[in-house]
TrEMBL record:
<comment type="similarity">
    <text>Belongs to the alpha-IPM synthase/homocitrate synthase family. LeuA type 2 subfamily.</text>
</comment>
<dbReference type="InterPro" id="IPR036230">
    <property type="entry name" value="LeuA_allosteric_dom_sf"/>
</dbReference>
<dbReference type="InterPro" id="IPR000891">
    <property type="entry name" value="PYR_CT"/>
</dbReference>
<keyword id="KW-0100">Branched-chain amino acid biosynthesis</keyword>
<dbReference type="InterPro" id="IPR054692">
    <property type="entry name" value="LeuA-like_post-cat"/>
</dbReference>
<keyword id="KW-0028">Amino-acid biosynthesis</keyword>
<protein>
    <recommendedName>
        <fullName>2-isopropylmalate synthase</fullName>
        <ecNumber>2.3.3.13</ecNumber>
    </recommendedName>
</protein>
<feature type="domain" description="Pyruvate carboxyltransferase">
    <location>
        <begin position="46"/>
        <end position="325"/>
    </location>
</feature>
<dbReference type="Pfam" id="PF22615">
    <property type="entry name" value="IPMS_D2"/>
</dbReference>
<feature type="binding site">
    <location>
        <position position="266"/>
    </location>
    <ligand>
        <name>Mg(2+)</name>
    </ligand>
</feature>
<dbReference type="InterPro" id="IPR005668">
    <property type="entry name" value="IPM_Synthase"/>
</dbReference>
<dbReference type="InterPro" id="IPR039371">
    <property type="entry name" value="LeuA_N_DRE-TIM"/>
</dbReference>
<keyword id="KW-0479">Metal-binding</keyword>
<keyword id="KW-0963">Cytoplasm</keyword>
<feature type="binding site">
    <location>
        <position position="264"/>
    </location>
    <ligand>
        <name>Mg(2+)</name>
    </ligand>
</feature>
<comment type="function">
    <text>Catalyzes the condensation of the acetyl group of acetyl-CoA with 3-methyl-2-oxobutanoate (2-ketoisovalerate) to form 3-carboxy-3-hydroxy-4-methylpentanoate (2-isopropylmalate).</text>
</comment>
<comment type="subunit">
    <text>Homodimer.</text>
</comment>
Amino acid sequence: MTGVTPFWNPQRPSPMPSHRYRNVFERVDVPLRERSWPDNRFTAAPLWVPVDLRDGNQALAEPMDTARKTKMFDLFVRMGYKEIEVAYPSASRTDFDFVRSLAARQAAGDLPEDVAISVFTPARPELIERTFESVAGMSNVLVHLYTATAPAWRDLVLRGSRADVKALVADAAELVAKLADRRGPDAGSMRFEFSPEVFNLTEPDYVLEVCDRVTEIWDACADRPVVHNLPATVEVATPNIYADQIEYMSRNLARREHVILSVHPHNDRGTGVACAELAVLAGAQRVEGCLFGNGERTGNVDLVTLGLNLHAQGVDPMVDFSDIDAVKAVVEECNRIEVHPRHPYGGELVYTAFSGTHQDAISKGMIHHAARAAELGVEASQAPWDVPYLPIDPADVGRSYEGVIRVNSQSGKGGMAYLLRTHYGIDLPKDFQPVFSKVVQRATDEHGREMEPKDLWELFRATYLAPGEDGAWTLAESAFTEPEPGEHRVAAVLVRADGTKAEVAGSGNGPLSALTAALAEAGVPIEVADYTQQAVTSGVDAAAACYLRCRAGGREVWGVGLDTSVLTATVRAALSAVNQMFD
Ligand SMILES: CC(=O)SCCNC(=O)CCNC(=O)[C@H](O)C(C)(C)COP(=O)(O)OP(=O)(O)OC[C@H]1O[C@@H](n2cnc3c(N)ncnc32)[C@H](O)[C@@H]1OP(=O)(O)O
Ligand SMILES: CC(C)C(=O)C(=O)O
Ligand SMILES: [Mg+2]
């Protein structure tokens, strides 16, 4: 991209001082000229590690107490996470005590043996020692050591040269190894993780050197592989750059077969998920993140989105999201932060269409899906999913179809027809849908609000059913007979709009034509252009629905009747039309 504005682009320079920031290429040059990640594909889930109880927790205005931490930890276990970062034990008594509470639970056999407990520490001897105290007696522990390695952090925060920072890390790694040895042969198993904080802004040759030194100190081997976790602590570049950085490390790390390559993207540019996904394609085997993306500033990468992105591509995420709302409720309660209604997969509105064309497509897609499941002889929940505009079946994550279509002024006929069909068992004839849709549009334009299914039903009832049931023109008495096969007669008392009565009779080749003949005799002639009768299977208290497209005096109206008997539904539909025509 050049800075020259082409003739077709009328945009002008903004008043913002963009020149103050450096392009990432000036800061990190990854010596990778050919990459394999663009051609790689997902075939299996990486190891997911939730860091909500440490990284997410450190970003909360009110950090979690033991009760909230326990609730979230138990959720992770239920969901199937096998490695959980639980605390920064040297940071606070709360964090330390929480680890001790897990130690007690582990001793009591109340923690699954295959769940590793990770604790986080900076490269400061007294804090490392405190961290080891917190996990005394525990097994299946991961000690996670970190130090920033990027130039600005070396110069401004740690105030040391490349060699100084490497020595700081090496000393800390040695202390970790020593304290682990001191636990003795009977102590439970312990593994190690190292994070060069701000990896993504660190010179590739230097970060490789630091990581390799740690690998050596911790003597990475088949029995005790080392985790190297490469964070995008502050996201600064497009995801392809991060992928290049990860592929470079994956290709060049020493004892690669004994290194578990992990990533830890944050979301400052809003591309944390893309970074994590490309990093996995580039060789990462493990991903740290938080549920719904809580974390410092714009958050850690979102493990819900990552997991369900895999699910949506046919790859098992190996973590249970089948009750997403239960997961969300715990996360919201523990973090005291609400999940946005548009949040991928878990937001309240993400399986909902308000717009007409989307609703039409979803409605058709759902009918097709049900038919396909029947054809294959499988449950709808097991049939291949191809419903337009819904990347996954909401039922996979425990959502009902209730909110999939919601009607407002942006909606069309498909949406309201879907709601009447699914909530009230009423399947409006195709030609009738645009007619009622106009009525709905008028109402939504007027009040500007959403129409819930019950509002829609009320509008339908008031517009079409009420005129046939208690409109101004009524049939006081009626007797339908069939003296000969195919010859139908009706004798009735019609009460006119002004309250006067007329005795009328009519005959025809069916009850409806007999009735229209009688109505014509009474001065309310309607010509039936279309007749649709339908069984109602659920929703309303009626077995039959009748729809009549009627004409009179150059006008056309639809009469609708519902009843347990087909004949009464037909009579009501005719009166519905009469009352709309002759009001
Ligand atoms: C990217 C990340 O998420 S990193 C994790 C960040 N998380 C947190 O900070 C939450 C918990 N932290 C805390 O509660 C506190 O910071 C504590 C208890 C750990 C330490 O508190 P304090 O001793 O008061 O130190 P403070 O927080 O000011 O830390 C700054 C000092 O640590 C040093 N430091 C920071 N990170 C590291 C590290 N990874 N390794 C070694 N030293 C470090 C700094 O250079 C600075 O040293 P200086 O005082 O010599 O200049
Ligand atoms: C893994 C640690 C150091 C971290 O949270 C980060 O760098 O974002
Ligand atoms: Mg982080």
